[in-house]
Amino acid sequence: MRKLQLDWQGYYPFDERSIRGKVQDDSGIYKISREQKDGALKPVFVGQAKSIRLRLLEKLTTDGDTCLKEQAGKGGCMFRFAYLYTQEEMDAAERALYKRYVPKCNDPASVPEAEDVEVNTN
Asked: How far is CA 89 from CA 22, 69, 101, in A?
């Protein structure tokens, strides 16, 4: 199995100030996690975007994603991201993260069909 080494940035608070201050207008993947009672961060959503900054801002403000809004409303949400520049890598990385975490706010039907790769999660 091919390995895809991700250069993760963050964890940052899932808020507008952090997104605008920390994320460039570049493509890649991201994960939004929520702090658990034991202090561990558990991903509740993974995704990809041509512009991570714009997508995270959309996720923060869009009314359509009720699961993510519910999680963010409970507090303790953080995000992390890695820049990737090909659609093939973004699809493979998103699929690997979904399979690893099975985040509660992702729709399984929207997970991309892609090559199975191994990615570093930290």
From this structure: 22, 28, 18
Q: Count structural domains, the chain.
A: 1
pLDDT of 50 over the 70 cut? yes
Contact 32, 55 (CB under 8 A): no
**Whole-prediction pTM:** 0.93
- Over 90: is that where the pLDDT of 84 sits? yes
Q: What residues make up the domain containing 100?
A: 2-119
Q: Which of 94, 30, 81 is nearest to 115 (CA)?
A: 94
Residues contacting residue 87 through CB under 8 Å, at least 6 positions apart? none
Number of Cβ within a 10 Å radius of residue 120: 12
Strand order of the β-sheet with 9-13 is 9-13, 77-83, 28-35, 41-49
Please, are residues 29 and 82 in contact by the beta-carbon 8 Å criterion? yes
Helices (H), the chain: 16-22, 52-61, 66-73, 87-101
| CATH number reported for the structural domain that contains residue 18 in this entry | 3.40.1440.10
